Amino acid sequence: MEFSFLDALSIPGHPAKPNDDAWGQTSGAAVVLDGATNLCEPLLPGESDAAWLARFAARRLMAHAQDGAGGRDALARALGEAEKSFTGLRRRAPQHNHENPYASMMFVCAGDGGFEALWYGDCAALVKHPDGRVEIVGDAFDKRAAEARRVKMLAEAKGLAPAAGVNRPEFLTALRAARDSINTGKGSWLFGPNPKAAEHVKTRHIAAAPGTLILLVSDGFLALASDYGVHDAQSLIHAAQAKGLEALGQQLRAIESEDAEGRKYPRFKTSDDATAVLLRLS
User: Fold this and answer.
1) 273: which of 143, 218, 235, 248 lies 20 to 30 Å off by Cα?
2) What homologous superfamily is domain 3-144+189-260+271-281 in, according to CATH?
3) pTM: predicted TM-score of the whole model, two decimal places
4) How many CB atoms lie within 10 A of CB 229?
């Protein structure tokens, strides 16, 4: 089995800010990564440590996959390389865990009888089988619902519009406290400069036949279904195939522009980085 590339889209949440998402694809593997928004001054050269990590991970995962490494092996190597590069490039050692860069991930590797999915956080894979059945791989829908509740609660407590921005002082304390638990055993695990994360990646083998469609998405793109309700998983992957990802990106931004403060759809930013990759298994 291998992946045939059909379409891809990756757009920043704001045109003046870095896109913290990244993606990569080869005939044997593909990945979408969503770098977690910086909650402090960058420790690396450039505007965004999150963007650096997501792009670094996409490159190294694809390189190892092309060299024949299996999914877990490719991930372990890329995590080790991320730790080495981050240590070598950073201006200083992090004083708090929230200063480290992290990323959600959906990484798929083709194999006999289907493909293997490995993931962290709220990236997802939507899988449309030749018989029309659609599977959701990952935890994104549950995580997005929990995030919306959290945003609404924080915004109401601080008397702010939900989409006031993650770097508002009123939000930062709570967000940094949550980020401080990442990859510590006290919270969830994400891709980051810590090889131990390889032991905590979630995995699933998806039995699939040739002709299966696979849509890899970051949560910013998945919001069309998880947050805004204009699609469900089945209609989203159908629209991706029928209309193309650019049209869906335009639909996404139109909905967010109409609810710029996040009062109808609670979220920390008017628009998030949004990435999607459409593949066919052959």
Assistant:
1) 235
2) PPM-type phosphatase domain (3.60.40.10)
3) 0.91
4) 11
